[in-house]
Amino acid sequence: MDKFTVFIVLFMAFYTKDVWCKSLNETDAGDDNKIVGGTDADITTYPYQAYLVLDDGRDQYECGGSIISEFYVLTAAHCLLSVRVQTVYVRIGSTNKNSGGTQYTSTTFYTHPQYNTRTYDYDVAIIQIDEGMDLDGFYARAITLVGLGNDPQDGVNMIITGWGNTSQGGTSSEILQVAQVPVVDRATCDDQIPATVTTRMFCAGFDAGGVDTCQGDSGGPAVSTRTGRQAGITSFGYGCAQPNSPGVYTRIGNINIRTYIMMMTGV
Ligand code: 4AZ
Fold it and tell me: Which residue's alpha carbon is at the smallest distance from atom 2 of ligand 1?
């Protein structure tokens, strides 16, 4: 390969946005037990966590979500719009993604009208469970969202959870994973990653990398260790857990995002 080809290959390897929720056609052999850099978690510690399977009639993809009330699950718009999703399966109340708890089926979901498929701006969506979910308060419970205007402070640790890939390009986990990552200030993050970090986003990760959300975690919650409230929705990143390449989260406290959720759900 000439130098130019090497450059292009490296560019593709490190600076390709991971835009797809994980396809269920990829095999799940040999889990190495981590989100990336996380540990096994029990659903009773994170009872707001939901597992989503998105069906476009041909293929199935997986994402995360969070319970915000008896009738609504919060997730990322790109989980629902990157393919023509027809049906959403929502499992709650289980540490394992493929069994246990309760599974609901929904064909009613809403994505933010300003969601931009190219820039990932306004990456928020709502899934409606018409019959209502059984929230027992132990295995399944709603999480409180941050208030209007909230912008997580630099350095505050966010709790990230999901069943996504446990390494970049690796396999997803059958057992819920948890980790913590500190918020990175918006200007620094904007310098570090190729995307524009808008005020509808915030970043979190370690300079050294090693801990991150990854493919399949999208749509899941980032919860502030300071307030115990959900401040972010896992949105995108450049690879997973790479040094100086924080993960990007939808900023729920943004006025436009928070007002949208309130108007659609009453939450
Ligand atoms: C994804 O594709 C994804 N490292 C989510 C988060 C990150 C990367 C990819 C952040 O679902």
Answer: 215
Decide: helix, strand or coil at residue 41.
coil
Q: How far is the CA of 131 from the centre of ligand 1 (A)?
A: 31
Q: Phi and psi for 126 in degrees, rounded to 5? A: -130, 135
Average pLDDT, the chain: 91
HEC-encoded secondary structure of 223-266: EECCCCCEEEEEEECECCCCCCCCEEEEECCCHHHHHHHHHHHC
Q: Whole-prediction pTM value?
A: 0.91
Residue 60, classed as helix, strand or coil, is strand
Bridging pattern class, strands 72-75 and 108-111: unpaired
For ligand 1, the distance from its centroid to the CA atom of residue 165, given in whole angstroms, is 9
Cite the active site residues.
78, 123, 218
Phi, psi (deg, nearest 5) at residue 81: -110, -15
